[in-house]
Amino acid sequence: MKTKSxxxxxxxxxxxxxxxxxxxxxxLFTLFPVAYSFYGSFTDWxxxxxxxxxxxxxxxxxxxxxxxxKASFNTIFMMIGIPIGIVxxxxxxxxxxxxxxxxxxxxxxxxxxxxSSLAAISIMWSWAFNGDYGLxxxxxxxxxxxxxxxxxxxxxVKPALIMMTVWKGLGYTMLLYLAALQSVPRSYYEAAExxxxxxxxxxxxxxxxxxxxxxxxxxxxxxxxxxxIFTEINIMTSTGGPEYSSASVVxxxxxxAFNNLQMxxxxxxxxxxxxxxxxxxxxxxKMNEKSSLDI
Amino acid sequence: MVKNxxxxxxxxxxxxxxxxxxxxxxxxxxEAGAGNGNGNAGKSSETKELTFMYRGGTDEQKAYxxxxxxxxxxxxxxxxxxxxxxxxxxxxxxxxxxxGNKVPDVFYFESGDLKAYVNSGILMNLTPxxxxxxxxxxxxxxxxxxxxxxxxxxxxxxxxxxxxxxxVGPFALGxxxxxxxxxxxxxxxxxxxxxxxxxxxxxxxxxxxxxxxGKIDQYGTGFNVNWVLQSLVWSNGAxxxxxxxxxxxxxDPKFAEALQFFADMQNVHKITxxxxxAQTLDTYQRWMKGELAFFPxxxxxxxxxxxxxxxxxxxxxxxxxxxxxxxxxxxxxxxVSEKTKYPEEAVALVNYLTASKEGMEMLVNAxxxxxxxxxxAEEWAADTSTKPANKQEFLDIVGEYGRVLPGHYTYNAEWxxxxxxxxxxxxxxxxxxxxxxKQEQPKxxxxxxxxxxxxxxxxxx
Lengths: 295, 461
Description:
- The complex is a heterodimer.
- Chain A is mainly α.
- Chain A has 14 helices and no strands.
- In chain A, helix 1 (2-40) packs across helix 14, helix 4 (81-96) runs parallel beside helix 8 and helix 13 (249-259) packs antiparallel against helix 14.
- In chain B, strands 1, 2, 3, 6, 10 and 11 form a six-stranded mixed beta sheet that branches. A three-stranded antiparallel beta sheet of chain B has the order 8-7-9. Chain B has a two-stranded antiparallel sheet with strand order 4-5.
- The chains are: A mainly alpha, B alpha/beta.
């Protein structure tokens, strides 16, 4: 008995030792900054000097701040890319799952954007969207269409950014779907075939429900990522686009904090954004729970 | 069993140690990597190490590394660790360093941030070190540049000196001399500015389809509203802000007239590429290819423009109703941290970079700036054999008529930036300038009021 408890104690110590570094890292680099910025959101801190508590005043200003509302709208608008990306990725995954020769090559091609640096990709796409010499407009010219100057026009800048984010995320989503598709047992399709189901019916009643957990995961992570979009915007439209039409919430936070000496106000926006992400994720989990029961 | 356990302990320890060390090591490496590789200084106990944080393109980086190397050679026992960032990341990185209480000993800062940095005790007062210093002759440095970094705790522009100008950047107007000669149009006068009407006339003559494909491929201008509107507004007798720096004055009819003139260049006179084609990149490239007659030239452009496939020179901007040419001068300050361990050496470095003959000569030869020293600048401008010939225009701007951008006067420049954020419909000709200034003034005033309020608070602290 005695030796056993000794062993138990030792293992406990080892366990703790192993757990310590990431926990410390979390406390130091995540929890502390989050708590600090939460406190900062109630102050008029300029990011340099001392912080004065001003209560909810920042939050009150937020909801009448035209640019914040505009940035929030832009951020949500650009999430249109999420369903588009999911549909495209699923189609590609279905295609690549058929065992046609050369699929490995295609998988690699689709995955390359995922592992590339976001900054490099942003620079590349801002060239592609250039109104005069850009690849996109040269392509459109083949069909006799004169393309706009994508990033300098308030109506086309958001679609342009959506196109790019969809392209960038495609490989990752596709890979997840591919893994999910491969885990669907063949026997289900055979049974369906015997029952006379056609291809679409099989997709609707077998494939789609079977990959549902993956779809859920993708939607949740994409919404979180989409809420925090920044690099693409900062590089491709460094002033937030014509009439601020491509500025995202994080872009506005960054401008306020580092260019306009309003760290406190920026923190209050970060808090609102954090709460928004938390709520949306919570709702999705609730909805997922409910609909899981139906299957 | 025992063997297994000790193996387990060992691995655990290694893992934990390596995590901890990797944490520290990573940081150390990062800093070393950012510094220069000039590690031949003597014993560490005797070496005084300064951190110098700056920004710039590759030409500037090369020039500054050379100057700092020379500084180290001239100041034995002082070692400078250089930290450089891309221009658009500089503000973020500096403010992060300030928040983290790791302010570099010597660093660039925007003149607009002067008040905030002084009020928060970040910038050291250089005056005691500059007075009675045999190495420094303030009267031989552009007054405009030094005054930008003066602050008496209330008004910027007077009082103690908290930074030295890295350089002064007069934003001059250039023209394609080769194009003028080819079209047989007399060259612009170096001293008498054109009127707006004359300017439009010349532009119309220069805007044409040169290869007969029905598309215009040579334009008069391709100005960026962010950087050229100031010239038009000021020379028409208007401004963004009033004398007291508390009221936004863009609703002045003179202001609207200047803005309308800018928009009309595109929409009415069609002497510039269309609104959507007017990306800076594009007009810059057009100028470089010799497809534009007029384009702004800053001293920082000189090294690039050296290789232009045509001759260019400088001229005054066309003048509005005041009859006077106007433009702005950019500048970046170099300041010293209030908390530096070696104030003497830090000031010596600032001086070396901004006011010493040795440093200035190297930077001017690298063609990244005009000389800060007036006597050197005059000698430099008198040499008309180097491009551009009319370098005197740069000096006239700095010495006589150049101004600082309006955002400099206020605690932050948010109110001023908003003006350009919303401006596209005017440039596209969808709304008139008069309508725009009316709708935009209250929005900007609100942000300015907020900045003033912030400034009051920061003074109390």
